[in-house]
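Please decode residue identities from the backbone states below.
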């Protein structure tokens, strides 16, 4: 600590100015009972007075009225001087006395609800009006001068402040003020990040000079990917149905890996919208089975058939309301998490019998075509890219072989390519009747992924008591082009009859010729879906 820093500081005057008035009245009453003078603004002052508290207006300190629809009220030396002057510094105190600046020892401010406003889809002007100016300025001033001022930006800290005062004869400890200051700067940083990212989106700037990424702590996790790693879950405020917005109805706390895998599962199943029942089963962020069906139960059974061994201890995502029959079937094997837009009462009762099975309800599906960005840290920096919102439609396909795909093959090809978008590269997906029947993921060479997917289809056939591999008569999707014909020929050997791939290799002609020789139909998408 410097020569001016003191372990404890008295609280004689508190400035309260909050948009979120949760806990405000109780906090105000508790401060008043401890002899603290309350100073406030606008709606906060009214709420306190309506509760019978004696409150001074900020204009009493500034000797200047609020103006411009409240845009200018706390931006004044009377306020900022009271927050910023260094206690015990003779020069600062002389200036405060000369200009009638009174000390403000506690500041409680939460900001205009900008994040909530944009999440609701507000128009441009409404969003702008919800950018707070005076609040962040006061918060930063008080946080800088935390040697003398306690700054509270979160109602959940009210009790901690009161407890600290009670333990220190109506004074606050430096340790508390320091912790509150750190939180205050993180709050203004997150607030400015939300504003700057909103602006970047509004002006369609995909690479702004400064990119801020921020979040609000939703959950401290027991550990990260491994027990020796610390971890926490932060939400960004993006109004996108998924793990960040879901309600957990039951089951133990979600882990780091649970959250990561559940997000992957729900984003995958959302590719198919809500028009036809779809189920995705995920293990280690990779699909081990995805299917469409006439019902969720049928879709689940088809998805499970693809790789029943890997599905053990997996994550299951559904695109519709979980029903009793599907819930009963799912509860037949060990499952970590189920995530769905909803679940009916009968399904909830069935899942409730599995006390460790987490059930998450989202209320809707994320839009796979919505704009957004993803970020990944690297040493000394961060990689930021737009979300992979690419989507291939039948009209985007280019038939390059002598044989065009049949109607059923075309349906399966489009299905398989949508799944490929959610499989770690290099990715190969065999599909038949709108269900995966073999998946090869995350290999260093594409031919290895093709062989693994074929072997998986053989394993699944054995599990089902069948003599022929599931890949026989299937189609195959590749997330990127085949650099050589060997990967394609491996798929043909596994029983694939049609192929979908981006194209773009210098050996495309060689690959197309190999497809023709093997009697395959092949279509090019012109779009790849690497997922590393």
């Amino acid at each position: 600590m410097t020569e001016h820093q003191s372990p404890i500081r008295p609280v004689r005057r508190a400035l309260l100015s909050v948009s979120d008035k949760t806990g405000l009245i109780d906090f105000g009453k508790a401060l008043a009972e401890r002899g603290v003078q309350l100073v406030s603004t606008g709606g906060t002052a009214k709420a306190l007075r309506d509760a019978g508290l004696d409150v001074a207006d900020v204009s009493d300190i500034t000797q200047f009225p609020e103006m411009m629809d409240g845009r200018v009220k706390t931006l004044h030396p009377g306020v900022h001087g009271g927050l910023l002057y260094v206690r015990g510094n003779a020069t600062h105190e002389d200036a405060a006395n000369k200009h009638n600046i009174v000390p403000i020892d506690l500041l409680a401010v939460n900001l205009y609800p900008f994040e909530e406003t944009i999440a609701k889809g507000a128009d441009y002007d409404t969003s702008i009006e919800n950018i707070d100016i005076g609040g962040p300025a006061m918060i930063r001033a008080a946080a800088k001068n935390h040697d003398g001022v306690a700054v509270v930006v979160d109602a959940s800290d009210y009790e901690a402040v009161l407890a600290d005062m009670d333990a220190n004869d109506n004074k606050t400890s430096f340790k508390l003020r320091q912790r509150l200051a750190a939180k205050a700067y993180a709050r203004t940083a997150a607030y400015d990040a939300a504003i700057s990212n909103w602006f970047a989106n509004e002006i369609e700037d995909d690479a702004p000079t400064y990119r801020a990424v921020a979040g609000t702590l939703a959950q401290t996790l027991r550990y990260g990917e491994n027990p020796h790693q610390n971890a926490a879950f932060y939400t960004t405020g993006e109004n996108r149905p998924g793990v960040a917005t879901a309600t957990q109805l039951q089951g133990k706390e979600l882990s780091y890996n649970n959250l990561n895998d559940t997000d992957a599962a729900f984003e995958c199943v959302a590719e198919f919208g809500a028009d036809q029942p779809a189920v995705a089963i995920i293990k280690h962020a990779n699909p081990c089975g995805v299917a469409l069906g006439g019902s969720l139960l049928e879709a689940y059974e088809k998805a499970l058939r693809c790789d029943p061994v890997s599905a053990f201890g997996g994550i299951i995502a559904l695109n519709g309301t979980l029903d009793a029959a599907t819930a009963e079937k799912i509860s037949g094997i060990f499952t970590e998490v189920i995530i769905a837009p909803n679940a009916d009462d009968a399904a909830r009762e069935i899942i409730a019998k599995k006390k460790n099975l987490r059930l998450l309800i989202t209320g809707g599906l994320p839009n796979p075509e919505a704009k957004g960005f993803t970020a990944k840290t690297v040493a000394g920096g961060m990689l930021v890219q737009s979300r992979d919102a690419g989507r291939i439609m039948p009209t985007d396909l280019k038939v390059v072989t002598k044989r065009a795909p049949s109607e059923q093959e075309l349906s399966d090809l489009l299905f398989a390519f949508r799944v490929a978008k959610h499989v770690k590269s290099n990715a190969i997906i065999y599909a038949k009747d709108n269900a995966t029947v073999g998946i090869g993921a995350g290999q260093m060479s594409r031919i290895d992924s093709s062989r693994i997917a074929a072997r998986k289809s053989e394993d699944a056939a054995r599990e089902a008591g069948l003599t022929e591999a599931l890949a026989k008569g299937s189609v195959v999707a590749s997330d990127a082009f085949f650099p050589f014909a060997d990967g394609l020929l491996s798929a043909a050997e596994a029983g694939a009859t049609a192929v979908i791939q981006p194209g773009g290799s210098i050996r495309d002609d060689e690959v197309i010729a190999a497809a023709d020789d093997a009697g395959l139909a092949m279509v090019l998408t012109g779009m790849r879906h690497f997922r590393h």
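Observation: The chain has a mean pLDDT of 91.
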